Amino acid sequence: MALGLSGASASAQPPTPEQSRARTFPQPQTRAQTQSQAQSTVRINEIESSGGTPGDWVELVNTGSASADVSRWIVKDDDDSHTYTIASGTSLAPGGHLVLDVESSFGLGSSDSVRLLRPDSSTPVDSYTWTAHATTTYGRCADGAGPFTTTSAPTRGTANACGGQSPGTGTRWPGDATVTVADRSNAFGTNLSGLSFQSPDVLWAVKNGPGRLYRLVPDGTTWRPDPAGGWSSGKALRYGNGGGDPDAEGVAVTPDGVFVATERDNDHGGISLPKILRFDVSSTAASLNATAEWNLTADLPAVPANSGPEGIAWVPDTYLTAHGFHDEHTGGAYDPAAYPDHGGGLFFVGLEANGTVYAYALNRTGGGYTRVATFPSGFPAVMDLEFEPETGRLWAVCDNTCAGRAATLGIDTRGRFTVTAVYDRPAAMPDHNNEGFAIAPRAACAAGRKPVLWSDDDNDDKHALRAGTLPCTPSATSTTAPGTR
Q1: Cβ-count burial 39-66 (b if 16+ within 10 Å, e if not)
Q2: Which of 200, 240, 264, 412 is the most exposed place for a label (fewest CB within 10 A)?
Q3: What is the mean pLDDT of the chain?
C-alpha cells in the first residue's frame, strides 16, 4: 500500500507531494514515543466529501514538535463497518500533512462524519460531523488548531485556506468581552487549578501543589477563602490512608460529595498516578483524607506524570437518558440500571495528554468503575470540564496551549458527545495559563448574565481568579445543578 493511500502498492506508483511531506527519516525515538506523541498532536485537518480528486479524502496534520507514528490507525465514517486503515510504517513529520484517499474504502455522504481511531479501533483521537456537503471542503481554521469551517478552497496536503479569518480564531466569546480580577493580591499564589460552584455563594477550588481544597465565598466583587469552619487557608488533601500529597487538578461538586481529579502523588512526583478521590467537606479537621478512591491507571493511556487527569465534571443520568446517550461499554442506549450503586450520574474526566474525555460510572463504595464512553474534547489538551444544566452543554476548556479557547459539546443524533462550538477567550482577557473554569448556577443571573470564573495556574499579575459572564438561558432540562438549588 502506498503511504497513506488505499488500494495501491508502494512500488506501483511514485509518492505524491503530500506523501513526501508525510514521510520522515528514522529519528532517535522509539515506536512507543512516537505513538504517544501522535496521540496528542495528530488531528483531522481537512475533509473532502464531494467532488474531490481522485475522490473523497481526509487530511491529517501533526501539530506537535516531533514525528508521529500513525501506523495502522483507522478512519471511519458514521458506519462502523466502513474502515480505512493507514499503512504500517507511516509517520507524520512535525507540521506535516497526510492525505488519505478514503474513497477506495468508502464514500462520504452529505450528512456524515469522519472518525480517527487508534489501531485498537475503539480509542478515538479526533472526529467531525456535518449535515451537508461543503461547497469546498471542511477544514480547521487556523490550520490544525481552530474549529472546523467551510474553507475558501480545497488545499489537499497543504495548510488550509481560511479566507479572511484571523489565524487561530474561533467564535467570539458569547458573554461580555471584559473580565475582572476576582481575588485579592496573592491570595492563592501559583498552582490554583480546578473550580466548581456549589451555589451562587459557594465556590470550590483545588490547588495542585501542595494539594489543597478551598471553600470560597463572596468578598464584595471578589472571592476569598471561607473564614469559618477551618477553611481560612484551605485544607490539605491526603489519600485514604492519611498519607501522600495528591496533585489536585480538577474538582466537581455532586450530590454524593466533592470529587477531585488527581495526576500523581507529589511525594513521588515523577510517577503518574491518575485517580479520582472523594472527600467529606463537612469534616472540621485541618486536613482531609479521601473517603473513597478510584485508580484509573489500568484504564487510561500511559502518560507522563504531569499530563494526566486535569478536569472533572458530573453529568446527571436524567440528562443523559433524556438525550439518548450511547453506552460504548454495552453497545446500546445508556441505562443507569446497568451500573448498580453508581449514584445518579456519570463522571467525565479530561486527560491533558491527548485532549480526550473519558466517562465513568463509579461504584460509590470506591475502587470499582466502568468506562462508559470516550470522545475528543476538540482540543489537543483539556484543562477543565464543566456541565451547564440550563443548556445541556458540556464545556471543555484549554489553557494557553490553545490560546485560552473553550469548546461546547452536546449529544448528537447517534447519542455521542460531539463539539458544537469553539469560542475564543473574552477579548479583554490575556492568554493566561487558565486551568480551571466554572459557571455559576442560574440562580446567580442578573440583568441577563451569570458569572463565570477562570483560575490561572501561574497567578499572573498576582491574581489567580478572573471573572466574566455568559448569557442566562431558559433551562434546557429539568435537571438542577448538583448541590445548587
Answers
A1: bbbbbbbbbbbbebeeebbbbbbbbbeb
A2: 240
A3: 86
